[in-house]
Automatic annotation (TrEMBL):
<dbReference type="GO" id="GO:0006412">
    <property type="term" value="P:translation"/>
</dbReference>
<feature type="domain" description="Ribosome maturation factor RimP N-terminal">
    <location>
        <begin position="10"/>
        <end position="75"/>
    </location>
</feature>
<comment type="similarity">
    <text>Belongs to the RimP family.</text>
</comment>
<dbReference type="GO" id="GO:0000028">
    <property type="term" value="P:ribosomal small subunit assembly"/>
</dbReference>
<keyword id="KW-0963">Cytoplasm</keyword>
<keyword id="KW-0690">Ribosome biogenesis</keyword>
<protein>
    <recommendedName>
        <fullName>Ribosome maturation factor RimP</fullName>
    </recommendedName>
</protein>
<comment type="function">
    <text>Required for maturation of 30S ribosomal subunits.</text>
</comment>
<dbReference type="GO" id="GO:0005829">
    <property type="term" value="C:cytosol"/>
</dbReference>
<dbReference type="InterPro" id="IPR035956">
    <property type="entry name" value="RimP_N_sf"/>
</dbReference>
<dbReference type="InterPro" id="IPR028989">
    <property type="entry name" value="RimP_N"/>
</dbReference>
<dbReference type="InterPro" id="IPR003728">
    <property type="entry name" value="Ribosome_maturation_RimP"/>
</dbReference>
<dbReference type="Pfam" id="PF02576">
    <property type="entry name" value="RimP_N"/>
</dbReference>
Length: 154
C-alpha cells in the first residue's frame, strides 16, 4: 500500500521549491490519494495538475494502482497547518473553541503557539443611548481551538 509518508517524500522538495506548502495528505485503504496544497498566493488549477502529474510520474501504477486527487483547501475548509494561518493574516476567520464558543473577526497575528483575532461588536456603553462599535482582541492557543475557517467577509 502507498503511504502518506511516501507521498510527502515525493512532493516535499518540489512543493518547497515552488513556494507552496502541504496542508494534508490522505491515503485511503483502497489507495485513493488526496493531497491538499496551498501557497501564500493561492494555488491554481494548473499547478494542481502539474503536481498530480509529478506524483504519477514518481509512482508505478504497474506495481500498485491508485486514484489521485490534488487540490487546494479553499475557503470554508478548516485550517490544518500553521502556514494557513499565516496566509490569512488580515482576513476574516471564524474560530470554534474546544468549549464550543464561536468568534468571528480578522486574523491579526500568528505567533509560535498562538494566534490573535480582532472582533468588532456593538456594545451598550453606560450613560449612552446607542450601542457603540468596539474592537476586542482574543488570543488563542492552536491546541485550544476545534476549528478555524476563512470567511469571505465578516
Amino acid at each position: 500500500m502507498i503511504t502518506k509518508e511516501q507521498i510527502i517524500d515525493i512532493i516535499g522538495p518540489k512543493i518547497k521549491e515552488d513556494g507552496a506548502f502541504i496542508v494534508d495528505v490522505t491515503v485511503k485503504p483502497d489507495n485513493r490519494i488526496e493531497v491538499l496544497v496551498d501557497s501564500h498566493d493561492g494555488v491554481s488549477i494548473s499547478y494542481c495538475g502539474e503536481l498530480s502529474r509529478f506524483i504519477e510520474n514518481n509512482l508505478d501504477r504497474e506495481v500498485e494502482d491508485f486514484a489521485l486527487e490534488v487540490s487546494s483547501p479553499g475557503i470554508g475548509h478548516p485550517f490544518k497547518v500553521k502556514e494557513q494561518f499565516i496566509k490569512c493574516v488580515n482576513r476574516p476567520v471564524e474560530v470554534l473553541t474546544s468549549e464550543g464558543e464561536r468568534f468571528t473577526g480578522l486574523l491579526k497575528e500568528v505567533r509560535e503557539d498562538t494566534f490573535v483575532i480582532e472582533e468588532e461588536k456593538k456594545v451598550k456603553i453606560e450613560g449612552k443611548k446607542k450601542k457603540e462599535l468596539q474592537k476586542f482582541s482574543y488570543e488563542f492557543n492552536f491546541d485550544q481551538v476545534k476549528r478555524v475557517i476563512e470567511l469571505l467577509k465578516l
